[in-house]
Specification:
Keywords: Membrane, Transmembrane, Transmembrane helix. By secondary structure, the chain is mostly helical. It has one domain. 81% of the residues lie in helices and 0% in strands. The chain is elongated, with a radius of gyration of 16 Å. 4% of the residues are buried.
Length: 79
């Protein structure tokens, strides 16, 4: 099995999905900093950008959560 095939398989695994969720959630830190700076500077356009980015993060996490459910994860926290 080539490295590329292994990498493609990893992204569809539970571990890969958890890593993707962590990376997506980590992006929330940058968005929070951006929103805080925009509020301090009263920059409406940057605040809108931060809100749209936050919505994208929430949507991304929801999609990854759904993927975990499809993988049949037995984790107690996921129900």
């Amino acid at each position: 099995m080539s490295s590329l095939q292994k990498a493609k398989g990893f992204t569809k695994s539970r571990t890969g999905t958890y890593v993707s969720m962590a990376a997506t959630a980590f992006g929330a830190i940058g968005v929070a900093k951006q929103a805080k700076k925009a509020r301090l500077e009263q920059d409406t356009l940057r605040l809108i950008d931060a809100a749209v980015s936050a919505a994208a993060i929430v949507t991304g996490l929801a999609i990854l959560y759904r993927e975990l459910k499809r993988l049949g994860d037995d984790d107690v926290l996921l129900g």
